[in-house]
Every structure is written in structure tokens, then in C-alpha cells.
Amino acid sequence: MLNKKFIISCVLLCGTLVYAEPSQKNQQNDVVEFSENYQSFKINKKDRIQEVIETNLFGETKYNSVLVVASSKGGTFFDYYFYKIDDENICLGIDSYNSVQDDAVIYINTNKDCGTACKVYLDKPEEKQVFYVWEPLKKITNDNQKEKITIKTNKKNYSVYLRKGITDVELFFKEFPKVKSIKGLENFPELKNISFFGISS
């Protein structure tokens, strides 16, 4: 039964890849770009995923990823591999697998596109603070301009610079503070969602 569900999910994903439109217009008549330049293929999930991603991108294994983030959805597990590209942490590869099958599906960000969702670890040093999440056929941003967000809590104040074209932000706190205010969100016209992790209620 699980095997059948996994196959149906793959068929639906492939249908999405085939019929997705490359771009659309937003309300300001700007072109919205999507990540179309990527590779995807199956491998054995016991293989060294990082080696596969890096060999395809760099021609050799470098083992210089700065972060691997794991998540799951509906029994499917995802690992996101982030690398430092032009002083920014960008996702360059994803592997997707379940607990039943031996295969994993790998997606490689061959164009090194910058996604519009980001994870922000506020208690980390600046170079390990912001990670831009990339996914196939999702929105990307080529706007390198950055704007500042200032988060005031009952324990500490934080400032972080993010790309202006972001749509989703996840803020991670370490000391479980209470958020009092956030300034600067008006400078991000595409921002739709902001979520908090590690805060007290």
C-alpha cells in the first residue's frame, strides 16, 4: 500500500514538472521566475548523497556543505544541502526518500538559483545565520539587494539582512524569548509568511 502511494506521489510530481509554467506576472507586472534548471534522478538511498550532489555540481567531491537540514512530510523524508555561494548559504541539493523503498530521488540545483524562502538562526554568527531554501519549480530571486529586519525580544535584540525578494521566513531562537516587535518587514514586498521557532508563548 505504501509502495503504491509513493508511486502515485511520484507520478503527480512528474505531472507538475511537465505542466508547470516557466514564469508568470505578479501585480507589479514584474516577471516571476521559477527554478527550472535542475537535475533529478533516482539512486540507492544508502549511497553517499553528498558525493553525488557535489560530483554533479563541481566535478569532484568537496565535502564543504555548511548545513544539512532534515524534514518530513506525509511519510516522505527530505534532506536539504546548503553551500556557500557568493557569500550566501544556498541550497544546492535535496534528497527525498521513504522508509519502505530502497531508492531516493535527488534534485540538484544546477543553476545555483537562490530560493525565496529562508531559515534564519538568530543566535548564530552572521556567516551561519541565513540559509536560502531552494526547491524545483518554486520561486527564485535574482535580486541581490538586501534589507534589514530588527527583532526586539524581552532578552535580546537581533538584526539580520535578507534578500529583498524573499517570500517566507522562519526565525529560530535559542533562548525561548518573547518577541516584542519586528521592524523592517515593510521593505519586503513579496513577503507572505513569517514563522517563529524556539519562542515562549
Account of the protein in words:
With 201 residues, this protein is mainly beta. The chain contains 2 helices and 14 strands. The strands form 3 sheets. Strands 3, 4, 5, 6, 7, 8, 9, 12 and 14 form a 9-stranded mixed β-sheet that branches. The protein is globular. The N and C termini lie far apart (40 Å). The N terminus is likely disordered.
Short note summarizing the structure:
The protein contains 2 helices and 14 strands; from the N terminus they run αβββαβββββββββββ. The chain is mainly beta and 201 residues long.
Features:
single chain, 201 residues, mainly beta, nine-stranded mixed β-sheet, three-stranded antiparallel β-sheet, disordered N terminus
Furnish the topology, listing elements before pairings:
Layout: H1 2-19, E1 23-25, E2 31-33, E3 39-44, H2 49-58, E4 67-73, E5 76-85, E6 88-98, E7 103-108, E8 117-121, E9 130-133, E10 146-153, E11 157-163, E12 168-172, E13 179-183, E14 193-197
Q: What spatial form do the alpha-carbon principal axes imply?
A: globular
**Uncertain stretches of 5 or more adjacent residues:** 1-29
Order of helices and strands: HEEEHEEEEEEEEEEE
Count of strand segments: 14
What gap, in angstroms, lies between the N and C termini? 40 Å
Structural class: mainly beta
**Cα-based radius of gyration, to the nearest Å:** 18 Å
Summed over residues and divided by their number, the pLDDT gives a mean of 85
Biggest beta sheet attributes: 9 strands, mixed
Q: Percent of residues in beta strands?
A: 35-45%
Helix count, DSSP H or I runs of 4 or more residues: 2
Helix content: 10-25%
